[in-house]
């Protein structure tokens, strides 16, 4: 099934479709967590890594660079010793983060239903 983006310019079935790539960036495992965390306030890299937990330095760096390239995250490098870099959301990033947070909150609210569905599925298979 092909889904057209606004104006019909892109379809999600096209390889390397910009719409699809941004969707993947925003909804990736670490992208979701970065966006939600940055809704609260700007973070330094090490603070953000601790707040998210279990993310490698490499993956967090890649995620931040990807979200920065997409215009969702702002990187503010201050020319001081030691270097200080703060990450925050752009207006576009804040909009995306609010959408992602809504999905995360829905997941939290409906987790009991999901677990019940999983049990029913597993019981039907055994």
From TrEMBL:
Residues 17-115 form the HTH hxlR-type domain. GO terms for molecular function: DNA binding. Gene3D superfamilies: Winged helix-like DNA-binding domain superfamily/Winged helix DNA-binding domain (1.10.10.10). Pfam families: HxlR. PROSITE patterns: HTH_HXLR. Keywords: DNA-binding, Transcription, Transcription regulation. InterPro entries: HTH_HxlR, WH-like_DNA-bd_sf, WH_DNA-bd_sf. This is Helix-turn-helix transcriptional regulator.
């Amino acid at each position: 099934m092909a889904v057209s983006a606004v104006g019909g310019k892109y379809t999600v079935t096209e390889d390397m479709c910009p719409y699809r790539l941004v969707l993947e960036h925003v909804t990736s495992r670490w992208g979701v967590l970065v966006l939600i965390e940055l809704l609260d306030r700007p973070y330094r890299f090490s603070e953000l890594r601790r707040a998210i937990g279990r993310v490698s330095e490499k993956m967090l760096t890649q995620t931040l660079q990807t979200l920065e390239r997409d215009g969702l995250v702002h990187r503010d490098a201050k020319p001081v010793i030691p270097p200080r870099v703060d990450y925050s959301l752009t207006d576009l990033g804040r909009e995306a983060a609010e959408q992602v947070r809504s999905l995360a909150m829905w997941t939290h609210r409906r987790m009991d239903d999901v677990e019940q569905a999983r049990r029913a599925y597993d019981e039907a298979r055994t």
